[in-house]
Amino acid sequence: MTTAVPAQAEDFASIIRLEQTGPGRFRNLYSDLDFQGGHMFGGQMLAQGLAAALATLEGKRAKSLHAYYLRRGNVREPVEYHVENVRDGRGFSTRRVTAVQHGKALVEMLCSASAPEQGVLDHQDACDPGVPGPDGLRDMHEIAADPAFADCREAALRLTPMQFVEARPVDPERLLRAGGGGPAHVWLRVPSLGPGSDPDTISCMLAYLQDYWIAIVPWAYQPRALTGVIPQVASLDGNVWFHRFVASEWMLFEMKSPAGVDTVGLASGRLLDRQGRVLATAAQEVLLRDL
After folding, report:
1. 48 vs 12, 16, 17, 29, 43, CA distance in Å?
2. What domains lie within the chain, and their CATH numbers?
3. Would you tell me the crossing angle of helices 42-54 and 199-209 to the nearest 10 degrees?
């Protein structure tokens, strides 16, 4: 059994490639970039934990996951994923996944999966028709280099995506400037995944993407810009509901913060393809402390 340090992933598919070390036991072979001072990106743990759960299922697709972040992970060390079979029904299955590092739990997660089934439901909330497409929008590198955002440059650099994700915010002013508030939109894509991606890979990608950007949205509702000292931000939990398994080159992440009290804000969002179909819905409680 190897305990080698995970290699730096070369593409998104590498991140969810796991080594099975025993019944219901998995270990990551690759990790994301070290872009948070050694702290592991929460989306990596959700994507890998979901991949571990799906590896114990056949013929079923992810329906939802509900996770609590308990401790920060070290991106330079391997993570073990322990999968417990909670229930297998005719239609639905449930798995409990614990992400463990050095004997301590980092994440506790419940995953639900079900067999594909045709039904009578086909509806969703309307999309905002005024949101422009990604073509012509600037990415975060360009925004960070813009002198107009010099006072927010540190925050813009922290929001600059990892190597596998390209992000083009529709309204950077709303996210970076004081009192922006209201719903925010950003276009995201993972260039290394093609149109032939399987449903398991798509669901893991959605679990990964929904943890990017959403945690900062409650701060954008406050009357101060992301200048000077950036607040301490930590996701407390992560919840994802999967609706469609469509490989879309660009996905629109609609985000808002329905409420925020004291140090905890609620953030929610939807990931949609370019045709406006909802792929996944996400919600998090986020801890924000002004340093």
Report:
1. 11, 5, 8, 10, 8
2. 7-114 (3.10.129.10), 140-289 (3.10.129.10)
3. 160
- Interval 243-285: pLDDT, tens: 999 878 899 999 999 998 888 999 999 999 988 999 999 999 9
DSSP 123-156: --PPP-TT---STT---HHHHHH-GGGGGGHHHH
Q: Give Cα separations from 157 to 40, 98, 136, 149, 160 (angstroms).
A: 17, 31, 20, 11, 5
- Whole-angstrom Cα distance, residue 74 to residue 226? 26
User: Cα(225)–Cα(209) distance, rounded to whole angstroms?
Assistant: 24
pLDDT value at residue 237? 95
Whether the CB-CB separation of 10 and 163 falls below 8 Å is answered with no
Active-site position among 93, 197, 210, 284: 284
What stretch of H or E contains 18? strand 18-22
What size, in residues, is the chain? Answer: 291
Asked if 93 is an active-site residue, the reply is: no
Concerning whether 118 is annotated as a catalytic residue, the answer is no
Q: At 230, which amino acid appears?
A: I
Choosing from 101, 112, 235, 257, which is the catalytic residue?
235
Confidence (pLDDT) at 30: 87
